[in-house]
From TrEMBL:
Matches recorded under Pfam families: Abhydrolase_1
Record PANTHER family: PROTEIN ABHD11
Domain of life: Bacteria
All residue ranges annotated as the AB hydrolase-1 domain in the record: 15-243
Keywords in alphabetical order: Hydrolase
GO molecular-function terms, A-Z: hydrolase activity
SUPFAM superfamilies in the cross-refs: alpha/beta-Hydrolases
Signal peptide: none
Protein name: Alpha/beta fold hydrolase
Annotated InterPro entries: AB_hydrolase_1, AB_hydrolase_fold
Upper lineage: Bacteria, Pseudomonadati, Bacteroidota, Saprospiria, Saprospirales
Length: 256
């Protein structure tokens, strides 16, 4: 299947870093980090397919997303760019490394392991799919409806960033909710290479997150023997939101 041309935002000057967001996210989630890095790097903020302003497709898999990124790398003639991926975006980076190990530079995987995960977003999907946007006139009304089932305000605010208005000023979801829900089993799949890959990869986990367990590190090392690990204290799954200054320090020291 042909790759799609992704929505991207480029800023800064220096060696290229590509940043990939997680499920329900968009490039906007990483703007603060991009601003902090753009004096020393050229930052490519990217909306993955079915997210943000990138094209909607029925098909959705890590292989498809990795090929979208490789298409972009070739389009901009980037040589071994640094890669950063958070959560689902981290698994896209891993699949990219699996498919094109010689074309990718050092990579940073944020708060996701190679393993498969249990279904953990069904309530969010149910809430979003059950929201009748035709009856919503204000963003606050959407938040009120979502608050009935999504109790965590931080999660609600994150989800609400996906609300947009169409040409008729009607609220719509920017992301392709139907495809993401139907392909959710693809999103939680294990990602591993057919043989060990020697690319340098830094795995960063949040100290308050359970996405990367101690035992996962042994499994990761089997597939990616040149992996290293850092835990950022006082950070949950959204490390970039909880501890942006510390994360930027780590990125700079790793990539320079």
């Amino acid at each position: 299947m042909n790759p799609v041309s992704l929505n991207i935002k480029i800023q800064g000057n220096g060696p290229p870093i590509l940043i990939l967001h997680g499920l329900f996210g968009s490039l906007d989630n990483w703007q603060t980090i991009a601003n902090a890095l753009s004096n020393e790097f050229t930052i490519f903020l990217i909306d993955l397919r079915n997210h943000g302003k990138s094209p909607h497709t029925e098909a959705f898999s890590y292989t498809l997303m990795a090929n979208d990124i490789m298409y972009m790398i070739q389009k901009y003639q980037l040589v071994k760019p640094f890669m950063i991926g958070h959560s689902m975006g981290g698994k896209v980076v891993l699949e990219l490394i699996n498919l094109y190990p010689n074309d990718i530079g050092k990579s940073i995987i944020i708060d996701i392991a190679t393993k498969s995960y249990p279904r953990g977003h069904d309530e969010i999907f149910k809430s979003m799919l059950g929201l009748d946007l035709k009856k919503i006139n204000k963003r606050s009304e959407a938040e009120f409806e979502l608050s009935k089932t999504i109790l965590d305000q931080t999660v609600r605010q994150f989800i609400l960033k996906n609300l947009d208005r169409d040409q008729n000023q009607q609220f719509v979801w920017k992301l392709n909710l139907k495809s993401l829900f139907e392909n959710y089993n693809e999103i939680i799949l294990e990602i591993k290479p057919s043989k060990p890959i020697i690319n340098e990869i830094l795995f960063i986990r949040g100290g308050r997150s359970n996405y990367i367990l101690d035992k996962d590190q042994l499994e990761i090392k089997k597939y990616y023997p040149n992996s290293s690990f850092i835990t950022i204290a006082d950070a949950g799954h959204w490390v970039h939101a909880d501890q942006p200054i510390r994360l930027v320090e780590i990125i700079k020291s790793y990539c320079i």
